[in-house]
Automatic annotation (TrEMBL):
GO terms for molecular function: metal ion binding; oxidoreductase activity. InterPro entries: Di-copper_centre_dom_sf, Tyrosinase/Hemocyanin, Tyrosinase_Cu-bd. PANTHER family: N-ACETYL-6-HYDROXYTRYPTOPHAN OXIDASE IVOB-RELATED, TYROSINASE FAMILY MEMBER. It comes from Rhypophila decipiens. This is Tyrosinase copper-binding domain-containing protein.
Amino acid sequence: MRFALVPTLLLGAAVSTVTAAPQLERLAASDGDTVLAALQKQAEDALKQQEAAKEAVSKRGACHLGNAAIRRDWEHLSSPEKKDYIRAVNCLWDLPSVDPAFSAARNHFDDYVAVHMNQTNTIHGTANFLTWHRYLVYLWEQKLRNKCGYKGYLPYWNWFKYQTDLHQSPVFDGSDTSLGGDGQFFAHNGSVVGAGRIWLPSGAGGGCVKSGPFVNRTINIGPVQPAMQGYTPVFTDVKAYNPRCQRRDLTMAASTSTFTASNLLNVTLGLASATVGHFQDELQGSLGTLRLHGAGHYAMGGDGSDVFTSLNDPAFYLHHAMIDRVYWIWQLLHPAEANKVNGTITFRNNPPSRVGTVNDWLDMGKLGPQVQIKDVLNTLGGGPLCYIYL
Ligand SMILES: [Cu+2]
């Protein structure tokens, strides 16, 4: 796919001051990880400028660059740091459910799956998609720290490394410092995605995750709509208790084709970066297209490919941290658009619904306090968030 530049007029000063066109042309010819590193540098420069400007005109808030949490690439955590994260996830799995109204949730790990499943149709393809998921993974991070003694912050899965062989990825290599490896081989006919318009061939897995620190864990909710063929969803009562192993099918057909420099540039500096509406639509993909958000889910396959209950795969949180990181980079590079939302309050406006606003509440059930979208647009203060990405 050819990378297209954003007309400078569309963006005002935002991008034109940050990146010159020749640099963009050069980036477009690089690999995804090089582009990501360049974008990160630009975002950091923009962040420093914006923070310096803020500081000049007002008293500094409690959160600033000097004390913000730093979320890092899973690969860049030390082994003890990775093991501490894994220990804390296991700790959440051992804590009791906090929502007795959802009987299939048997522990606190399940509570997150339940809250997401219950709201699936009002948090995807909606005005709140980016902020709802931002706040959810923040609550997950805080719970790991406050209830389970995790010392670090939420790591992310860098999509732009190992995308041609996910078995080599430190997130998925099956070692005791990964979030588990591939599933056992399970013969199936690939996955159907993109509203039934895209077929992805199966990988070498599809069955129970066979290695890594969570092999003996049981998941209890769903599946509701797994993309992987041969994985039968619960049709009768999606809220029913359904204990089983977690399944995965590392699917390079999704990751190799989509985690590209061209797709990353398109949403951060290209045509699809012009407005928040363009950005979020391109990030999520539309009917018949596979894009960054979907590709991460379908690259995990199995339980991770279920739009309702993909949180059953513990790598969900690292995938959505990466979504949030790209959103964070985009916000920093597009300050005039950064605090806007676009869309309605139902999945691709089906059924038709009102337009979403920054005053809408983000409902996390019993996972944490409700906040408004405007409270989580900025990761550096003005609300509960205080973090950056590195
Ligand atoms: Cu979701």
